[in-house]
Every structure is written in structure tokens, then in C-alpha cells.
């Protein structure tokens, strides 16, 4: 699957894959054939993050500071929100609640069904690059260039916990699951409890980590998996109990950055410099 500039974001379901790119477009792909079904244009900057709202409505966040809603069936932009005073680097949705984070150092909580701003979360003193939510949508987790991860109460807008993840550099990725937080900074992936306690660090990446996804199977035994990717062109799968990765995939032969990864039980999808790679575990030679 080809784009024209660096792919910054990917999401997918059973039928379609959606990509956002520095070429300012949102592209809809047939996940089975790899063909581009439609290209949405309208952003004035690169598209850095995506989310499904419904199977027919796609949300995109851009370097231009806007969130746009795209109608896949009607192939048109449904709404545009001037959301932030700087680039939107990441967003996450839980039900009708969307949280976007930005270069402007804020996280904003939206009722996206009404395009209504509910709260602005302020407390980071540098840009926010990453965001996630807990399973019931009551907590927001943010990762920032100020080297911290913050846990916010959605209802009150207050910080419940600040975790100093890195002593030297920006937190580029966060993923929350069942009381645990995986974070990526520099070439490191770390696993923390929600309380802030460091459980383990994983150090095999040679370059900056830019995407992590965490899945905890047993919170008491702290068993589960982390998938991470970054500037080295590698996707690594980790067992939370082991210091070494259990599997490594090189998505980019040239060693380019893997900016975004998503996975389910059957596939890992990664966005690269100018293309999208799909690892389909049902089809050993898929590309």
C-alpha cells in the first residue's frame, strides 16, 4: 500500500484501513486488496492521528490544529473543529468522549457527538505527544516532552498522578491496560503500575521508540504483551515477564521510522516513510 509522504497514523477494522500522512490527506484502503478506495483532502497540515467514531465516521487530528470528521459512505467532510493552538499529535476515543493532545501543552476532552469541548487539561509544561484512556473512560493518560506521564480524572480534570518516566528526554508513546502503563522514550520501553512503580524496562531498540501498545492478560501476575516500534524500522513484541523481545519484524528495509502501529489477534499494521505494511498471521507472505 503506497502513500506519497511519510505515513503518520493508521487504524483499521475488518474491512477498511485508514491512513493519515504528511501529505495532508486521509486515505481509505480496502484492507483485503490493498487498493485505495478514497482520499479525503481538507487539512492544511500533516495528519498525525486518527480514530474511528463509527464504522462510517473517521476522526483525524492534524498539524493545522483541527479535528475533522469524515463521512466514509458519503465521501465528504462532515465537521471541522478548530481544536488547538498548535499541532495535534495524538488522540484517543472512548464512546462519545474524545481526548486530543497538542504542541500547545494541553489535553482537551470533547463530547465528539456534539463537537463540544468539555474540559481542557493543563499541567504539562511542554508539548504532549501521547495519550490513552482506561477501560471505562474515567482516566486520561498523557505523555509529554516534559519527561512525565500524567494520569487525569476525566470528570474533575485534575491530575491524579505524575510519573517521572524519563530523566533525559520526551515521552513519545503511552498505552494503558488494566492498571498498567507502557511508555516509550528515547530507545526504551518501560512498564509502570498505575501507582507509578516501575516494573521493567526493555532496551533492545536502537533508535527512538514512537509507538507502543500494551495488553495485560493477568494483572496479578503481570503477564501480557507489549508491541513497540520506532525510528529503527523495527516492530518488537515483548512478553512482560522477559527482558528480551520474543519477536522482531523489520517493516522497513531501509531502516525508516515506523511511526504508528495497530494490532489485533490477526494482524499488525504499521505506517512507514511512504507506505503501509501489514503483517497478516493468516497469510505468511502478505505485504
Q: Secondary structure elements and their pairing?
A:
Layout: E1 7-12, E2 16-21, E3 25-30, E4 36-41, E5 47-54, E6 57-62, E7 66-71, E8 76-82, E9 88-94, E10 97-102, E11 106-111, E12 116-122, E13 128-133, E14 139-144, E15 148-153, E16 159-164, E17 171-177, E18 180-185, E19 188-193, E20 198-202, E21 209-218, E22 223-230, E23 234-239, E24 245-250, E25 260-263, E26 267-271, E27 276-280
Antiparallel strand pairs: 1-2, 2-3, 3-4, 5-6, 6-7, 7-8, 9-10, 10-11, 11-12, 13-14, 14-15, 15-16, 17-18, 18-19, 19-20, 21-22, 22-23, 23-24, 25-26, 26-27
Task: Please characterize this protein's 3D structure.
The chain has 287 residues and is mainly β. It has a single domain (56-280), classed as 7 Propeller (Methylamine Dehydrogenase, Chain H), CATH 2.130.10.10. It has no helices and 27 strands. The strands form seven sheets. A four-stranded antiparallel β-sheet has the order 1-2-3-4, with no helix packed on it. The radius of gyration is 18 Å and the shape is globular. The N and C termini lie close together (8 Å). The model has no long low-confidence stretch (mean pLDDT 91). GO terms for molecular function: ubiquitin binding. InterPro entries: WD40/YVTN_repeat-like_dom_sf (IPR015943), WD40_PAC1 (IPR020472), WD40_repeat_CS (IPR019775), WD40_repeat_dom_sf (IPR036322), WD40_rpt (IPR001680). It comes from Mytilus galloprovincialis. WD repeats lie at residues 13-39, 40-80, 121-162.
Amino acid at each position: 500500500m503506497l502513500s506519497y509522504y511519510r505515513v503518520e497514523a493508521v487504524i483499521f477494522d475488518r474491512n477498511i484501513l485508514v491512513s493519515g500522512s504528511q501529505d495532508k490527506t486521509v486515505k481509505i484502503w480496502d484492507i483485503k486488496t490493498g487498493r485505495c478506495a478514497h482520499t479525503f483532502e481538507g487539512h492544511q497540515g500533516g495528519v498525525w492521528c486518527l480514530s474511528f467514531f463509527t464504522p462510517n465516521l473517521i476522526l483525524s487530528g492534524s498539524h493545522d490544529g483541527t479535528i475533522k470528521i469524515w463521512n466514509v459512505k458519503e465521501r465528504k467532510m462532515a465537521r471541522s473543529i478548530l481544536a488547538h493552538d498548535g499541532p495535534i499529535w495524538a488522540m484517543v476515543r472512548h464512546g462519545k468522549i474524545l481526548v486530543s493532545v497538542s504542541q500547545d501543552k494541553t489535553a482537551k476532552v470533547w463530547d465528539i457527538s456534539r463537537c463540544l469541548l468539555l474540559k481542557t487539561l493543563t499541567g504539562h509544561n511542554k508539548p504532549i505527544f501521547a495519550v490513552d484512556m482506561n477501560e471505562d473512560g474515567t482516566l486520561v493518560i498523557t505523555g509529554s516532552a516534559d519527561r512525565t506521564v500524567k494520569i487525569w480524572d476525566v470528570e474533575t480534570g485534575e491530575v491524579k498522578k505524575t510519573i517521572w518516566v524519563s530523566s533525559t528526554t520526551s515521552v513519545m508513546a503511552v498505552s494503558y491496560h488494566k492498571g498498567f502503563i507502557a511508555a516509550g522514550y528515547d530507545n526504551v520501553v518501560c512498564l509502570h503500575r498505575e501507582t507509578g512503580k516501575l516494573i521493567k524496562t526493555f532496551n533492545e531498540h536502537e533508535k527512538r521508540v514512537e509507538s507502543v501498545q500494551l495488553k495485560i492478560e493477568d494483572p496479578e501476575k503481570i503477564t501480557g504483551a507489549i508491541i513497540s516500534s520506532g525510528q529503527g524500522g523495527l516492530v518488537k513484541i515483548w512478553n512482560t515477564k522477559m527482558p528480551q523481545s520474543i519477536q522482531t519484524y523489520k517493516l522497513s528495509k531501509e531502516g525508516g521510522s515506523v511511526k504508528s502501529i495497530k494490532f489485533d489477534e490477526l494482524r499488525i499494521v504499521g505506517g512507514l516513510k511512504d507506505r503501509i505494511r501489514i503483517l497478516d498471521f493468516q497469510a505468511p507472505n502478505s505485504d
